[in-house]
Amino acid sequence: MFNTISASPKEEARISSLEIAKIAGKQHKNVIRDIREMEDAWVKVHGLRFELMQKRVPTNNGGYRSIPCYSLSK
């Protein structure tokens, strides 16, 4: 279900907010909240926003749904 977002040697290595939640043992909604709270400070320091994306995750009924997640540089 969770795949590490990796990069080629020319690209920056990235990790998703879903992976951060799994590693930290936190709910994804709380990780999203924390990222949104620190985004303004990140923009001031780095001049960039975090990359918001959609990820398809399986549901209990065998289907899929899209959920928002962030892609962050490692």
Q: What would the average pLDDT be, to the nearest integer?
A: 84
| pLDDT < 50 runs, ≥5 residues | 1-7
Global shape: globular
The end-to-end span amounts to 20 Å
Largest sheet composition:
3 strands, antiparallel
Fraction in beta strands: 25-35%
Helical content (DSSP H or I, runs of 4+) = 25-40%
Number of strands: 3
Query: What is the structural class?
Result: alpha+beta
Q: Using the CA coordinates, give the radius of gyration.
A: 13 Å
Question: How many helices does DSSP assign?
Answer: 2
Query: Order of strands across the biggest sheet?
Result: 1-3-2
- Element pattern in H and E: EHHEE
Task: Please explain how this structure is put together.
The protein is α+β, with helices and mostly antiparallel strands and 74 residues long. The chain has 2 helices and 3 strands; from the N terminus they run E-H-H-E-E. The protein is 36% helix and 28% strand. The two termini are 20 Å apart. It has a 3-stranded antiparallel sheet with strand order 1-3-2. Helix 1 crosses helix 2.
Short summary:
The protein has 74 residues and is an alpha+beta fold.
